[in-house]
Design brief:
Number of domains: 2
Order of helices and strands: HHHEHHEHEHEEHEEEHEHEHEEHEE
CATH superfamily of the largest domain: Response regulator
Strand order of the largest sheet: 2-1-3-4-5-13
Number of helices: 12
Largest sheet: 6 strands, parallel
Shape: globular
CATH class of the largest domain: Alpha Beta
Distance between the termini: 54 Å
Length: 329
């Protein structure tokens, strides 16, 4: 049987770090990548805690929208997943990992409920329902009248960022964001950050569509799009940018640094998600704190209510918090 030492040796960290990660110690400061490696090693080595456990009462299927590799480019989804897994662990729920591509495998197992993490359209939701009627979606809501869901309030988060910029005297405000498509390629997903940015600034009389740049939610596209903005606007570059996630924002900071454009003295930057490295980049990144682990935990609680025969669908909207650091003023 694998031990904590086996996991520590494989990952290259201390036994204490492994123990605290596996026990979800909230006071531990460790990168998301290290957490992922520890959990992956524990799974590969079939590690089981040497504690007396109550019998597993339910088997929960988790449908993942992102692969492990894609999670590393956007740690938002890793944090959502960890929140779900943490709450399942606390409630002695067994987890069955599923994907849209292997949903048929789930139909052959005893699955009491499903948590779907990511973006799913109504057609995909109906496919998932062939496994069970007990479904909770995290980060999307295919149909409020049929399914439970947990989402973050990105509309209010965007307004909070824009109000901050406007009250600090910024007149020219840009947006750098990403767009995603459903896995079945049926349509592009509307991003509430982008739509709220456009509508709210238009109401305030400050919207300029030449200040909006859209790519994917990656560091590389943040770098590329900010370089494009610098080349196109020169001295008229906006004095502030709202950036769709922290990965994009980190790429933006690099492009501004290479162009010798000081942050925040010339350009202020605010991202979204508050990933673990945001406070350690230079300058420390202002960002919107999204309570991703709480979203995952809430999804498990909703699913247990559904299993216990609650009939009326619930949609839970989790608030955010603006975290101002040194990349904005």
């Amino acid at each position: 049987m694998a031990t904590i030492k086996d996991i520590a040796d494989r990952v290259g960290v201390s036994i204490a770090t492994v123990s605290r990660v596996l026990n979800y110690d909230p006071t531990l400061s460790v990168s998301d990548e290290t957490r992922r490696k520890i959990f992956q090693a524990a799974e590969d080595l079939a590690y089981r805690k040497k504690t007396e456990r109550r019998p597993v009462s339910y088997r929960i299927g988790i449908v993942y929208w992102y692969t492990d590799e894609e999670e590393l480019d956007d740690l938002y989804y890793m944090s959502l997943r960890m929140g779900v897994e943490k709450r399942c662990e606390a409630n002695n729920l067994q987890i069955a990992k599923l994907s849209l591509e292997n949903l048929l495998a789930g139909r052959g197992e005893e699955i009491h409920g499903v948590i779907a993490i990511g973006k799913f359209n109504l057609q995909q939701a109906e496919e998932i329902r062939k496994i069970t009627d007990h479904i909770v979606f995290v980060d999307c809501s295919p149909d409020d009248d049929q399914f439970d869901s947990v989402i973050s309030n990105f509309e209010k988060a965007t307004i909070n960022v824009l109000d901050y910029f406007l009250t600090h005297g910024h007149q020219k405000i840009g947006y750098i964001g990403g767009r995603e498509t459903y896995k079945d390629k049926t349509s592009v997903i509307t991003d509430p950050r982008e739509t709220t940015f456009k509508n709210y600034l238009a109401q305030k009389g400050h919207y300029d569509d030449t200040y909006v740049y859209i790519g994917s939610f990656s560091v590389n596209d943040g770098y590329r799009l900010m370089k494009q903005a610098i080349e196109e606007h020169g001295e008229n570059l906006p004095t502030a940018f709202f950036v769709g996630n922290d990965s994009l924002a980190i790429g933006c900071l690099r492009a501004l640094h290479e162009a010798n454009i000081p942050v925040p003295d010339r350009v202020s930057i605010i991202g979204v998600n508050d990933i673990s490295i945001s406070k350690y980049v230079y300058p420390p990144l202002s960002t919107v704190k999204v309570y991703t682990e709480l979203m995952g935990e809430t999804a498990v609680d909703l699913l247990l209510e559904r299993i216990m025969e609650r009939q009326v669908p619930k949609k839970v909207i989790i608030s955010t918090r603006l975290e101002i650091r040194e990349s904005s003023k």
